């Protein structure tokens, strides 16, 4: 892997796509353009990428295991009565047991995972409000 990294750092004038044979199969190259010159520093800040001479074209190296074509899951919005039930349980104990989580999930009609994540997020909210 050290040779792979060194080859890229030495060849600044050569685009990544010209070195496809040296890219491991677990890396995916994506070429995209950035229309807003100010956003070029914001997009994929932690990715290894190159810009074209105008600073617009990006060649991104990302893990091939990322499924970029998969649609995002829709955001879950809870109804007021569901939030009230979880809030009431949270006031009695901010750390819910497995048994209480299962019972609460069945009562309000959501999954145990959703209850668990709601409690995690609620504890985070309490910590942030204390600061």
From TrEMBL:
GO CC term (a single one): nucleus
Keywords recorded for this protein, A-Z: DNA-binding, Homeobox, Nucleus
A biological-process GO annotation: neuron differentiation
UniProt cross-references to SUPFAM superfamilies, sorted A to Z: Homeodomain-like
Compartments in which it is found: Nucleus
DNA-binding region coordinates: 71-130
Pfam families per the UniProt record, alphabetical: Homeodomain (PF00046)
Main location: nucleus
Boundaries of every Homeobox domain copy: 69-129
Protein name: Homeobox protein ceh-5
Natural source organism: Orchesella cincta
């Amino acid at each position: 892997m050290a040779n792979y990294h060194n080859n890229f750092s030495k060849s600044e004038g050569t685009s990544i796509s010209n070195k496809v044979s040296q890219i491991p199969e677990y890396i995916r190259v994506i070429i995209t353009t950035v229309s807003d010159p100010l956003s070029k520093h914001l997009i994929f800040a932690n990715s290894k990428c190159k810009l074209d001479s105008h600073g617009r074209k990006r060649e991104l190296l990302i893990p091939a295991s990322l499924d970029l074509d998969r649609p995002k899951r829709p955001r879950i919005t809870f109804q007021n009565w569901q939030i009230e039930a979880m809030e009431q349980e949270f006031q009695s104990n901010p750390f819910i047991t497995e048994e209480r989580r299962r019972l609460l999930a069945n009562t309000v009609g959501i999954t145990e995972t959703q209850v668990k994540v709601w409690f995690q997020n609620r504890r985070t909210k309490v910590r942030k409000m204390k600061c």
